[in-house]
Amino acid sequence: MLDEKINQAPGQDMGSSPNSAASKTEQIQELVHSLTSNYGEASPRKQGRVLKSTPSGRDLPGRDLAMYEFWLGEVHHTFRESSNQNFSLTHASEWVLDNYYIIRQALQQIKEDLPSGFYRQLPRLPAGPLKSYPRVYAIARAVLSYQHFLLDPIDLQTILIQYQKSVPLTMGELWALPIFLRYGLIEFLAHALVLAIHPSKLPNLPPLVAQLWGGSDPLLARETAAGEAANNDSIANIILSLRSISEQNWNDFFESVSVVEQTLRSDPARVYPRMDFKTRDLYRKEIEILSFATGQDEGQLAEIVISLSCADPLQQPAVHVGAFLLGKNRDVMEQRIGYHPAPGTAFIRWVFLHARTLYLSSILLLTSLVFLVFFFAAHPSQLLSTIPTSLGSASWDAARTIGLISLQWVAIFMILLALAVPAMTVTTSLINWLITLMVPPRILPKLDFKGEIPDSYQTLVVIPSMITSR
């Protein structure tokens, strides 16, 4: 069991000791094997699922994070008071005082990137000490412990690539990885500082559910010189890792380890790899949405898109994958995977399918309502009685008595015609404003030509101009 190996002494863990004869590659392979054996399964996720209470009484992004934040603030305040009173500073206090802004940034980043809805949608472990916790949280803690809390992005990339050969992670888990790397570092830092300052009253911190890799619970560690030195080194490594996480380009890291990304890059039309990051991310999000709705694996959906895009030697050439995710062939993709849109989604699609008709009809309807309100509010009969005429009032009255009542409606029509242009201008502006509120902006798929323009896409731009000679 992974938890048993986590509890082993440093000299007995999986080759993590510096004196171990095993090579680094063998250590990584053994770590990956243990991760796949213990954290290979996860409970199925459900879109929009809301849990009334957090399993095991733990709330990582809420109550637990607030406890860590409060304790770290208290530690910083204690160290700062000692510094103001010219007390000798310890190794741990110097690291915290000099880098507290990094700790604050990490806490703020966790709050922003880990909303409760996203946290609840992550696949969870079905058994073990970390039961009901996100699987990526357990993986992040194990990797950090294996690396002695000094994060190496290259080794992390290697671990994830090898791990996903057996257990592919969802895109949501990969995006959540830097969040839980920060969280795991903050978690251990809070407990390590308890040992560093020896408070008279232990703080109210969430317990460490499972032991970290090759180490022991800092609250139970023996107070020896070697143990204190190791604890100080861990604090330094944690702060260095928090800084490294903030400097890492996680967009590139995600695409280097994502199974879906590597599958889509085999686009038969060879267009997807040339697109910019936002467009590729838009395509991947469509696969994630379909995975939530159908319960199918994201990697399998990506392979289905590629198979549909492949060329048919007897009928048609290769098709860009975007045609099946966002374009005219979307219905083919949905029929293949058995996707049935929800009523709300179906209604939105119908609206966009008849957008022009609905747009013009709404302007016409609103303009008609304006005219009707004016017609009933203005009392046309009274308004007409005030209109001066060249015939004089006697002639106008005579016209009404003779039976030429249609003259009134001609006057009303002329008034409405004069109001037509300003009324339609106002209603059109109102409809356009409402559309900007109800319809969010869309990302247009585009190619990335920042580096260079390939020969197949080069063209000539002609600017008409007049040249005059003096």
Instruction: Figure out the total of helices.
Output: 20
The overall average pLDDT, rounded, is: 82
N-to-C series of helices and strands: HHHHHHHHHHHHHHHHHHHH
Strand content: under 5%
* Name of the top-level CATH class of the largest domain: Alpha Beta
Would you tell me the structural class of the helices and strands? mainly alpha
Distance between the termini: 90 Å
Main sheet summary:
none
How many β-strand runs?
0
Work out the radius of gyration: 34 Å
The CATH level-2 architecture of the largest domain is identified as: Alpha-Beta Complex
How helix-rich are the residues, as a percent range? Answer: 55-70%
Overall morphology: extended
Low-confidence stretches: 1-19, 48-55, 212-222, 401-405
Number of domains: 3
CATH-defined fold name of the largest domain: Aminoglycoside 3'-phosphotransferase, Chain: A, domain 2
Summarize the structure in short.
With 470 residues, the chain is mainly α. It has helices spanning 2-6, 24-38, 60-84, 91-113, 116-121, 135-146, 153-163, 171-197, 225-247, 250-257, 259-264, 277-294, 298-309, 322-325, 330-337, 343-353, 355-378, 380-385, 392-402, 406-438. It has three domains: 2-254, Aminoglycoside 3'-phosphotransferase, Chain: A, domain 2; 266-340 and 444-470, no CATH class; 350-438, no CATH class.
Descriptive notes:
The chain is mainly alpha-helical. It folds into 3 domains: 2-254, Aminoglycoside 3'-phosphotransferase, Chain: A, domain 2 (Alpha-Beta Complex), CATH 3.90.1200; 266-340 and 444-470, no CATH class; 350-438, no CATH class. The chain has helices at 2-6, 24-38, 60-84, 91-113, 116-121, 135-146, 153-163, 171-197, 225-247, 250-257, 259-264, 277-294, 298-309, 322-325, 330-337, 343-353, 355-378, 380-385, 392-402, 406-438. The model is unreliable at 1-19, 48-55, 212-222 and 401-405 (pLDDT under 50).
